[in-house]
Design a protein that fits this description.
One of its GO terms (molecular function) is oxidoreductase activity. This protein is α+β, with helices and mostly antiparallel strands. The chain has three domains: about 210 residues, FAD/NAD(P)-binding domain; about 55 residues, no CATH class; about 80 residues, D-Amino Acid Oxidase, Chain A, domain 2. It is built from nine helices and 17 strands. The strands form four sheets. Strands 1, 2, 8, 9, 10, 11, 16 and 17 form an eight-stranded mixed sheet that branches. It has a four-stranded antiparallel sheet with strand order 13-14-12-15. α1 crosses α8, α2 packs across α5 and α2 packs across α8. The radius of gyration is 20 Å and the shape is globular.
Length: about 375
Amino acid sequence: MERFDVAVIGGGMVGTAIGYGCAALGARVAVLDEGDGALRAARGNFGLVWGQSKGDGMPAYGDWTRQSIRLWPELAARVSSLAGRDVHYRATGGLGFCLDEQELEARTNFVRRRHNDGHATLRMLDRRELRELMPGCPLGPEVLGASFDPADGHADPLVLLQGMQAGLLRAGGQHRPGARVTGIEGVAGFWRVARADGSAVEARRVVVAAGVATTPIAAMVGLDVPVRPVRGQNIVTERLDPILPLPASALRQTGDGTIQIGVTNEDDGSFEIATTTAALARMAARAIRVLPAIRTARMNRAWAALRPMTPDGFPAYAESGTHPGCFVATCHSGVTLAAVHAGPLAAGILAGRLPDFANEMHPERFRGMTHVSSH
């Protein structure tokens, strides 16, 4: 039986970041991945490195997010080198467009709440200030203003995942795809993780980072972590000349010139990942209201993915009280939080003590909750 310091269950953005971080610190790591058929959230990452919308109602999440954003430049340099191509991280600042007075009022109130929680860099811009910030950007006449955070930015999520996987392997870690986990039991000071193909590994520490499959696997180590699938649909257009210099919460121009439009938040409990014409039409219509010039752009592709959502929409991190050395990590912000997952969270897992920010996001808060929201 092969033994490891850490076995990470889940090979998506969260699990790969943790596995890469642990391996980079010298641990012997196995990332156990169900494979390409898994309903992983990494299929649908929008690519934002985003703080302005994180933490409304949970200041610790906002602090954790801002810590990750501060660490992102170093992560971007490392993963670009490991992947052999630019992750296209650009800390340009980010926008949340408002298209009518009701949206503007709601966003202004949101920014006030974020200020009260310590998010001092977030502010509102009116249309004149937007035009000064982005001279030449052909904003539609309905754009009245936007929230703006100069710390926000965006990156290529596929290169990020590729670079972290390469870093895991370069540090001596193993990526083992192809079978789901069926059981976890203690054996002589190790945790034995059994898989559906009859294989198993043993590890001193186990991290459950299995996205929408988190709930049943976390239960194997005594943790109650309710997670539901929330479907998000995306559109990517053909490459265009530079038109949108700053990313927005549902609209960005990628490093290769395509326009990415997103995303829906479809919370119907379904594991269906098909796109729908109605949702894509709504997304495209709003994007055109912001940037009418993209009306004639050809759509290259559209797709959907499932994001793991907790009852309050915030991340959950914990070590099991009944299975010491077994942890859970789940969130729907795998790109933004990649730097803290590969950094302080990985270090905390190896040390057996989660960072203080993570401890404030323990899943015990879900007792009695039923509502699922997104943040």
